[in-house]
């Protein structure tokens, strides 16, 4: 188990010791033999070279065999090592020349556009814009917002001509098809009301009142009562029939492009045009606008609305949900669609406008270069702080782990080179004795 924990250099040094002991035994067994002397000379040189290199490598990190002189160089010179590492990283890795050299190789705009065109990026950006708008509303003062919005509403209403506004609204409803949707929504809202028992009783009461009005004379009342008693007049049945007809009419008005729907809308636009031409109606609209501007408390209404919106947003933010999507799903989908359209329009503009592309690219290069140069001044204290917190043992491991294979080969080369030099010296000495 101990043998498995040894590295290659330790095993080589142990092998050199074993070879030296073997050569010594051979030399003692066969004294005076040239081969035995040469074998011992080479083994001795290999062992000395291995021990010397082991001592030299170990002296870099600790005191070999407790030898105190010029050993444990790295722990003793840790301050100089840290300063040298800091200077090397600042000058070699974060130098101005290398920073700009690497930036010139980057194609920032294609990389940026490719990233922005990804669906995940678009979804994240639009979602962040929605969250930013929500947070912006939460940070604002409701009273100041209400006062500003109320002033804008009053200025807008002052400039609006009521007749022209209604005409433009009618054209928009007709051209967009929203008039049909509005009529369909209205019929859907009115149908449950029309099918209620209260409406049935109201129709029956109306018929009964009408019948009494038409039979004011004595004989008329007599015959009407007689007909009702005989079942010839049944107000309840008549009310049921009229209610069914009303429901059928609402269903037909709710059907898109039905004949009744088209006739009702044509009649509405025709009468609206006639009404808009009446001077009395125009004057009524102007008076209504002036009354609206004078009497409606816009600040109070808008302030209360914003306060409730802020309360909802704050509560939903604590629950980590999207308040607009939860309370106003149609507004949320419309806002999301609008943001997606603007996002795509911006990307198209960046791709087609060469001048804008150059401006953005120059801005990106400038920001990245400034950030990198700023990091040059920050990296020094970071390196000094990190290395300064290491203990001597941790610092030794940090350096040794990076160069361990080379250091092991240095130690093994000491034994190999020592053996070769020993062999060479023995040959030189042996031949010198012969001649």
Q: How many angstroms separate the termini?
A: 52 Å
- What average pLDDT do the residues reach? 77
Number of discrete helical segments: 21
Instruction: Please report which band the strand proportion falls in: under 5%, 5-15%, 15-25%, 25-35%, 35-45% or over 45%.
Output: under 5%
* Biggest β-sheet description: none
For the secondary structure, the number of strands is 0
Shape: rod-shaped
SSE ordering: HHHHHHHHHHHHHHHHHHHHH
| Unreliable parts | 217-232
The helicity comes to over 70%
Radius of gyration: 49 Å
The SS-based structural class is mainly alpha
Descriptive overview:
This protein is mainly alpha-helical and 435 residues long. It is rod-shaped. The protein is built from 21 helices and no strands. Among the domains are: 115 residues; 186 residues, no CATH class.
Blueprint of the fold:
Blueprint lengths: L1 H4 L2 H22 L4 H28 L11 H4 L1 H16 L2 H10 L2 H9 L2 H21 L2 H18 L2 H15 L1 H17 L2 H18 L3 H12 L5 H20 L4 H18 L2 H17 L2 H21 L4 H5 L1 H24 L1 H35 L3 H43 L1
Helix pairs in contact: 2-3, 2-21, 3-21, 5-20, 6-20, 8-19, 9-17, 11-14, 12-14, 14-15
């Amino acid at each position: 188990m101990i043998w498995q924990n040894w590295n290659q250099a330790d095993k080589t040094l142990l092998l050199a010791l074993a070879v030296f002991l073997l050569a010594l035994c051979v030399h003692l067994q066969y004294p005076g033999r040239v081969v035995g002397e040469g074998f011992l000379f080479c083994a001795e040189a290999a062992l000395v070279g291995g021990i010397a290199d082991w001592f030299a490598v170990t002296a870099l990190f600790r005191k070999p065999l407790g030898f105190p002189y010029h050993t444990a160089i790295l722990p003793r010179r840790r301050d100089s090592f840290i300063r040298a590492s800091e200077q090397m990283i600042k000058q070699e890795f974060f130098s101005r020349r290398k920073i700009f050299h690497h930036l010139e190789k980057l194609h920032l705009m294609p990389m940026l556009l490719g990233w922005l065109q990804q669906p995940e990026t678009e979804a994240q950006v639009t979602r962040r814009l929605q969250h930013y708008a929500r947070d912006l509303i939460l940070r604002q003062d409701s009273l100041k917002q209400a006062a500003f919005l109320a002033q804008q509403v009053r200025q807008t209403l002052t400039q609006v001509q009521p007749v022209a506004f209604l005409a433009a609204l009618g054209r928009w409803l007709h051209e967009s098809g929203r008039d049909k949707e509005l009529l369909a929504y209205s019929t859907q809202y009115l149908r449950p009301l029309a099918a209620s028992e209260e409406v049935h009783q109201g129709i029956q009461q109306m018929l009964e009142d009408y019948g009494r009005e038409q039979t004011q004379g004595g004989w008329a009342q007599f015959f009407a009562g007689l007909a009702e008693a005989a079942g010839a007049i049944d107000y309840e049945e008549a009310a049921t029939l009229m209610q069914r007809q009303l429901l059928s009419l609402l269903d037909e008005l709710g059907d898109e492009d039905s004949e009744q729907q088209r006739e009702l809308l044509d009649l509405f636009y025709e009468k609206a045009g006639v009404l808009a031409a009446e001077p009395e109606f125009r004057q009524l609209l102007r008076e209504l606008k002036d009354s609206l501007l004078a009497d409606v408390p816009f600040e109070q209404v808008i302030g209360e609305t914003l306060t409730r919106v802020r309360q909802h947003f704050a509560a939903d933010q604590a629950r980590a949900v999207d308040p607009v999507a939860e309370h106003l799903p149609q507004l949320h989908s419309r806002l999301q669609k609008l943001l997606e359209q603007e996002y795509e329009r911006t990307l198209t503009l960046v791709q087609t406008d060469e001048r804008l592309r150059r401006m953005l690219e120059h801005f990106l290069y400038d920001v990245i270069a400034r950030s990198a140069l700023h990091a040059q001044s920050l990296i020094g204290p970071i390196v000094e702080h990190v290395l300064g917190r290491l203990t001597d043992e941790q610092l030794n491991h940090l350096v040794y782990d990076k160069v361990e294979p080379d250091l092991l080969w240095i130690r093994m080369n000491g034994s190999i080179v020592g053996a070769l030099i020993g062999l060479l010296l023995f040959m030189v000495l042996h031949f010198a004795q012969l001649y």
